[in-house]
Amino acid sequence: MAVKVSVVGAKGRMGSHVVEAVQGAQDMQLALTLDAGDDLTTITPSNTDVVVEFTVPSVSLNNVLALIAQGVDVVVGTTGWTADKLAQVTAALENAPRENQQVFIAPNFAISAVLADHFAKVAAPYFESAEVIELHHPTKVDAPSGTAIHTAQGIADARRAAGLGAMPDATETDGGSRGQVIDGVHVHAIRLRGLNAHEEVLFGNAGEQLTIRADSFDRISFMPGVLLAVRKLAAGGHSGLTVGLDKFLDL
């Protein structure tokens, strides 16, 4: 039986691609397409198996909480998720109307970006220094990107597990020109016309450098990851909140 998929943010840059991807998937059926101002309560377990939410950070949390209250599983591609917002989603799922309800949030759906993030965690314990550069189109509303934040946090976790201390940095500045510091890792955001979504992770030791880079040249690159997440939630077994497509890639 085909998975019934509704899309919230269906008229947006990403949402429109999701609609096309669902329509092109033989094992899925497009249910409802909603956008700003539409009533989310029209989405119910009777007409929808999984919702894909691709909107903007300012409304995504409320959308997800409303969809949880409707008793449906949700795949979220909107970025800008903080620890506090994630905690609110977890709390809502604990009181969800349906048992074993599922929400999946991905900092990035591009397989290349997910693998780059994984490789960065593997490399982090072996280098004295690490920095992250993310490059996006100038219409992106958040900076740094959710992907870059997730990468920096993963690097920091791997360094702590390896017993490494703070990275060397003798720069005498208030931090304004050294990027945002996330868990001890400097992250730099570039917004440039002509770019889509790109991330570069730089690792350095005395006399050597490792560069890990992922490039998404078109939004269609995110669609295999979106469909994978929809299929995983439709199959069940991931109750509660799951963050990161790496959880579904057996890395």
Automatic annotation (TrEMBL):
The active site is at H136 (proton donor/acceptor), K140 (proton donor). Residues 3-109 form the Dihydrodipicolinate reductase N-terminal domain. (S)-2,3,4,5-tetrahydrodipicolinate binds at H137, G146, T147. It is an enzyme of class 1 (oxidoreductase). The keyword Cytoplasm applies. Keywords: Amino-acid biosynthesis, Cytoplasm, Diaminopimelate biosynthesis, Lysine biosynthesis, NAD, NADP, Oxidoreductase. InterPro entries: DapB_C, DapB_N, DapB_N_CS, DHDPR_bac, NAD(P)-bd_dom_sf. One of its GO terms (biological process) is lysine biosynthetic process via diaminopimelate. Pathway: Amino-acid biosynthesis; L-lysine biosynthesis via DAP pathway; (S)-tetrahydrodipicolinate from L-aspartate: step 4/4. Its main location: cytoplasm. It is found in: Cytoplasm. Residues 115-248 form the Dihydrodipicolinate reductase C-terminal domain. Catalyzes the conversion of 4-hydroxy-tetrahydrodipicolinate (HTPA) to tetrahydrodipicolinate. HAMAP family: DapB. This is 4-hydroxy-tetrahydrodipicolinate reductase. The lineage of its organism: Bacteria, Bacillati, Actinomycetota, Actinomycetes, Bifidobacteriales. The gene is dapB.
